[in-house]
Every structure is written in structure tokens, then in C-alpha cells.
Amino acid sequence: MSSGAILRKVIDMNGRNGDARLREALKSGTGRAALQKERVWREVSRGIAAMKHERGNHRMKRRIRIIPLMTGALATTAVVVLVAFFTLTPEGADMAGRIKGYFTNNTAGQLAAGASETPADTAAATADATPTATPQGGKKAYPAQKDITIDIEGQSETVGATLNGDTTREIGYVIYIDAQRYAKDTRDGADIYKALNAPSGYPGVQMEIGRQEGKGAEETYNALLAEAKSAFDTAEGQGRVDSPVKGWSLYAYDEGGGEAPYEDVYVVDNTRGGCFVIRCKMFREAAEGHGARLHAMLKTFEVVESSQVELSMPSLSQNAAPAPTATAAPGATSKLTWDSLAFGGAKLGMQEQYAIDEILKFVCLNGGTEAPLTDETTTDAGGKTRTIVWGDGTVAVIRNGELYSMETTNPVALMPNGLHAGLNLLDFAAVLGQPREVPGEFAWGVGSNDNLFVRVQDGIVISVRISLIE
Amino acid sequence: MVESGAIKRIQAGDEGAFARLYDSLAEPALRFAAAILGRDALSADAVQETFLRVYRGIGRFDASKPFEPWFYRILVNECRRMLRFRRRLTPVDVLPERADRRQDWLELYEAVGGLPLRLREPVVLRYLLGYRDAEVAAMLGISTEAAKGRVKRARHELRRYLEKGD
């Protein structure tokens, strides 16, 4: 296109002519979509009919539930009598002891075994940690690990942080990173420390440390502030700051809901005419939690003359795959807890109807429909087993009225620890410890049994299954 | 504009009133979703889900307030939800046109499709559906100043796109 034609197009985008062109372009471009009106109405009508049918079923179930409630008074009286029997009579106490022993062996024993982190694990972690470098010829040594304190909403938390940074150039930096929550990547010459457990469906959380050569900190700060004012709804310059780093600071954010982007930017002089540019990118809802963690890690940021430091750093790279410990006993290296065996509000052991209500929430949130694909009940010596399969890939197994196991491929179904299908296996290992390799899956257990299973394809977790006892 | 009387009738269970509501809003909604999502099938899904959510939730809506901001807020959120889980594709679902006429608007339409979502939404609401800055702001849950600023930045971006084009 000639420069004259480009100039005409540029002029055409100004004023009323530009508005008219934009309107015409949008109208023409979306014309075909408008033809779907009738077809969409048919689907809407079908959806409304299904909703009405569901409401009818709910009313019926509610009536059925009321009858047991009316007999509650009788049930309460029976319980009082039973408690008196078990506690006040020798025969009752003996029976209670045997019943308690049954549960203790099967569930409480697992809880006791799995709940506490064994001293052996902690010792092993410490032993594996990179030893402190011995200073040589006046070089400054940095320990491989150190504790950092984070203040979130007035509460203090101490976490172990791992030495990281970049000393490949004359002027480098060191920083301590919470490796349980953040993993390092490198892109376009910048180091990116990315949060492992940011909720799916939200913008990611990361701290990006890049370099600006040949331009001082104040000049860079001014340029970044101007850029932020153009890129965000609000951008405020803080000027010179002493914390969390000594340098220049600004913040910027968009209006809107909790998922709207938010950024803290710091510019630190590198003592050689250039600077480091540190961008903490998150979404507004994460500003409190992740913001505080990034702030705490940034307090350990230090510009260094690479030849004057002695350090050896463990790798935080996501390229290293965990070595499955196939011979390890279930639960040996696992940090899985009973509390985390849930998807959304649906917890193992939950009563059937409540569990199904909770499951439907994340099924529908992912665009699925409430009506399951299949719903089958079988009866055997163990009792009644109901298996429900939904179109989004979620399967629930209810045994004798309680949620026994669930499997899902739904990335919206979050576990309490933030893990979900769609994450890397490394993300699971970072939170739960090394998995055990079982046929076709990787597994973790709370105690002596495996309770969480994932199927993996090309390093990505494609399905997650949780189960009471396998 | 949807009248409060129509909303009250729907809240009272008038199915015909809901059908008329659909009739008046479906086409602009489909166009909006197509401009945001870039795919007809996705725009149909987004609009279908939006009307079902409206049907489910209309009992809680205050009929004395304007209906469109609420409606488009649901549609905007639905489109955003879809975009989170699916990559936006280059818009290809457009009406066939004569080759010379097609070139004029298609380039600009694709440029709008290339805008970041936060700029695309206010541009489409303003220029395709004709809403004013204050109305756009209400639909997106932002201030009027922010809405104006985003539209201004969008126009600036579109000028840059056309300059780079060839």
C-alpha cells in the first residue's frame, strides 16, 4: 500500500468518518452471527423446559425429606437411650470399644499416620539442600535456604525460601524465592517467577525481573510510568522508595472485578548506568496474598557484582521432571491431607445429596449440563453403589449414601490446595511431594493407602481422581 | 430500550413477555458476542447461556433499574468465561462479499478482533450497539472515565494497526 493510501486510512480513522467506518466494519463482520437467532431460541426454550422439570423434581425430593425430619424427635430420644447404654453399662462399654477399634484401624489410624510431617522428611529435605558456600578470597557467600516472613492481613507467616537469581553477567542479582509456590522460567531475557497455584480462569501471577541497559533508573521509571498511564485505567508513581527494594516504584491497575489486572513495578539501579526492572503482575483479588508474598521475596533482592559472590543454587526450572519413586510405600513422601481430598465443595465422605449439589456447581461452571450422561446403581454384599457420569468428564461414586470417590477432567474443579486437571505434573509434585507410580497413574496417599491419582499426558495432568480407600 | 413493565411481566411468569425480550435483544447480543469471541458457534453458546441465566435470575432483578446494563454484564462475563478456556481465533465467520467491498471493512474488523479484550469490549458496545460512555461503563463495571479512556486507546491502537498494515 502506498504511503498516500496509508495516510488516507489514518485520516479516515479520525473524527466522524472513522466512527462510521468502525460501525460499518462491526456490523458487516457480525452479520452472519445474527442469523443464528432462531436456532439459539430453540436451545433456550429447551433449557427453560429442562429447568422447569428439575424444579419439579426438587419439590418432590424436598417433600420426601420432610418426613424423616418429622421423626427427628423420636430419633433423638433413641440416641439418648443408646448413649446411656454404651456409657453406663459394662456390656455397652465393651461393645463401644470394639466399634471404636474398627474405625481407629481403618480411618483414624490413617489420619494419625498421614497428618503429621515426619521428622525424617524434614531431615531429608535439609540434607538434600545445597550446602552453604564457603567464602573464598573475600567473596560474599549466600546460604542456599533462608526463612522469610510474610505479613498477610495482619497475620505473620514464615516460609522457607531458596536462593535464586542471575550471576551470569558482570552485574547480577540474588533473591530468595518460595519454591513451594513459585517456579522460575526465562523468557526474552527476563527471569519470570510464576505462581504455581493461581486459580484457573484468572490471569496468572508472576514476578518478572528484566534488565534495562544504558538507561538510568529514574529515566526508565518515568518512561514506564507514562506507558502504564496509557495501558491501565489507573497508574500512580510512588517515586523513590526504600522498601521492598531501594529504587523507584509505581503501581497500576484496571477497574472491574477481582480478575482485573494489577501491577507493582520497581526500578533498581544496577550501578553501571543501567537498571533492573521488576514487574509484579497479578489480578486485583490476589493483591493481598500473592502481593504480600512477592513483596516479602523482593525484600531479599540484591544487586551483586557476580565475581564477588559465591553461591550455588538449586534449580527451580520446570524442565526437570520428578523421579517417581516406584518402590516407595504409599504415603511415604506424600504431603497430601484429608482436607484436600475434595473438588470445590464436594468432599469425600459427604452425604450423597449435598455432594451432588456441590459437584453440579463446578460441572455447570464449566459449561456442562446438570443432567448426567449415566446414573447407575448396583447392590452387592458391600451395600449400594451409585455411579454418576457427567458430560464434562466428572464421575462420582456414592457408596451407601456417602461420596466414596470422584474423578474429573474439569479444570474448573479446584482442590482446596488449588490443584486441578490441566496443570503440569510438576505443579502437583511441588505441592504434594514425589508421587508413587502405579499402573497408568501417579498417586499420593494420606496414610498407608493411595487416595489421589492423576493420569498424565505429555507432562500435563489430564484427569484427577480422589478416593477414600483403594 | 427494555421497559420495566416488560420485566415485571416476565417476573410474574409471562412466557410471551420473555419471548419478546429475547426477540428484541438476541440479535445485538449475538453480534456483540461474535465481535468479542470471533466464532459464530461460540457466540451462540454465549448468548444461549446468557438468556438462561437471565431467566433463572430475573426474579431477583430490580425492575425499576435499567435492564440492559444487567443483561450485558451477564453477556460480557459469559464471553470472558469462554475466552478463559478457549483461545480466541481469528474471525473467519463473516458474510461473503464482493472481493473489493470485503476488503474495506474486513481489515478494520480484523483489527478490532486483534485489540486486547479490555479495549475490544467497550469499542463493540459503543460502535456496534450504540451505547453511550456511561452505559458502557455500567455494563463493564468500570467508571465512565475509564470507559472513555479505553475507547480512546482503542481508536489509537486501530490507527497504529492500519499504519503498520502494509
Question: How would you summarize what this structure contains?
Answer:
The complex is a heterodimer of chains A (470) and B (166). With 470 residues, chain A is α+β, with helices and mostly antiparallel strands.
Query: Uncertain segments of chain A of ≥5 residues (pLDDT<50)?
Result: 64-70, 96-136, 314-328
Shape of chain B: globular
Strand content of chain B: under 5%
Radius of gyration of chain B (CA) equals 17 Å
Helix content of chain B: over 70%
Helical fraction of chain A equals 25-40%
Q: Which value, in Å, is the CA radius of gyration of chain A?
A: 29 Å
Largest sheet of chain A: 8 strands, antiparallel
Structural class of chain A: alpha+beta
Number of strands of chain A: 23
Given the helix and strand composition of chain B, which structural class is it?
mainly alpha
Provide the spatial order of strands within the biggest beta sheet of chain A.
Answer: 16-17-18-19-23-22-21-20
Total helices of chain A: the number is 11
Oligomer: heterodimer
Low-confidence stretches of chain B: 87-101
What does this structure look like?
The complex is a heterodimer of chains A (470) and B (166). Chain A is flat and about 75 Å long. Chain A is an alpha+beta fold. In chain A, a hairpin with a 5-residue loop joins β8 and β9 (247-253). Chain A has eleven helices and 23 strands. Chain A has an eight-stranded antiparallel sheet, covered by helices on one side. In chain B, α2 crosses α4, α2 (15-37) crosses α6 and α3 packs across α4. Chain B has eight helices and no strands. Chain B starts with a helix and ends with a helix. Chain B has 166 residues and is mainly alpha-helical. Classes of the chains: A alpha+beta (470), B mainly alpha (166). Chains A and B meet through α1, α2, α3 and α4 of A and α2, α3, α4, α5 and α6 of B.
Key words describing this protein structure:
heterodimer; A: 470 residues; alpha+beta; eight-stranded antiparallel beta sheet; seven-stranded antiparallel beta sheet; 23 strands; 35% helix; 30% strand; flat; B: 166 residues; mainly alpha; 8 helices; 75% helix; globular
